[in-house]
Amino acid sequence: MPGQPDFPAVFASLKKILKVYEPNLVVKHDEPDNYYLNTHYSEKWSKELFFGAVTIKKNYVSFYLMPVYIFPDLLEGLSPGLRRHMQGKACFNFKGIDEALFAELARLAEASVQRVHTENLV
To answer: What is d(CA 7, CA 61) in angstroms, rounded to the nearest whole number?
Structure first.
C-alpha cells in the first residue's frame, strides 16, 4: 500500500466520517486504501452520482466530498485551517489526524447529505 506509515490511521478516521451514511448511499469500493460512496439512482441524472470517497495517495490521504462542488455555498464559514487542506473544489488532503478538522469535515459531510436530499438528487 502506498503512503506513509500513519496513512492507514488517517484513512480509517476519514472513512468513519462517510461510513455512517452507508445506509442511505451506495458503497462502490471498500478496500484498505479506497472507500467510495455514490448516491442511489437519480431520476434527474439517470444514474448514480458520486458522493464522496477517501483514498490513500503517495503523499497524503484524500477526502472527496462532491456536494461541495455542486453546492459551493456549503463551504461558507469553512475554517481557515480546513480550507488550507483543500485541493481543488471538492478534495481535502491530510497527512495526519487532526480531530478538530475532522469534526468540522464531519459537519460538512452531514450538511452535504442533507443538501443532496433537499435538492432531490436521489
So the answer is: 6
